[in-house]
Amino acid sequence: MILYNKKIIQLGENSIMDFNEQIKQLSKRISTLKNSVVTEEATKTSFIMPFFQILGYDVFNPTEFFPEYVADVGIKKGEKVDYAIIIDGKPCIFVECKSCNEDLDKHASQLFRYFAAAPVKFGILTNGIVYRFYTDLEKDNIMDLEPFVEVNLENINESGIKALMKFRKETFDKSNIYKAAEELKYSTLIKKVFEDEFDTPSDEFVRFVLNDIYTGKKNKNMVEKFKPMVRKAFSAFINDIVNQKLNEVFDTM
């Protein structure tokens, strides 16, 4: 029994390694071909369908991966989402696709309409390069305006791969993903705030810092004076944290 369990664990590790490698190969393929892929249909066949195949879905089986799924909204008839992923006989994920040269910011409203038309729990908006994952954390059956996670396959990292692994067919668990979605969503938004402040500290952030270190007037001139210092100190602080973590790793080697 112990040997059997070890074998299962090893197979799982191999499966994860294979998944990582396949995603990285797709990333290279995208970088190589994206300038030659100029239509939505070409994006689907070159990038999007291979992506969902890597996730383990049979993209040629309409009982599992249904193309042009009807998602009529109100009195509007004939509305169709590009793909519906069917789980246990019911649509669970809507996938709206755009050409790889399209800006996704212009198209979230389309997926928003489809999401409300069927009892799906997740929506994916993609141009074959960037994948934005949505759910309904704020109000049942109403898609959130912000994705709970976004993955760029051209700049894929370990956290992105871990997020994608949650959507693999063999490990898909709707309840677990939904529970993790709130933390993922707000962690991403908080990270974005820090990134913005790191690149270009806002007046509000500089004043927040000055409240504890400067007793004089915090007018516009003083804020502008301190901005470079705040940015430099913030950068040094982040570098110190990174170096500390690296030293901790080296100490255990």
TrEMBL record:
One Pfam family of this chain: HSDR_N
One of the record's GO molecular function terms: type I site-specific deoxyribonuclease activity
Record's signal peptide: none
Coiled coil: none
Superkingdom classification of source: Bacteria
GO biological process annotation, one example: DNA restriction-modification system
Ranges for domain Restriction endonuclease type I HsdR N-terminal: 77-141
Name of protein: Type I restriction enzyme HsdR protein N-terminal domain protein
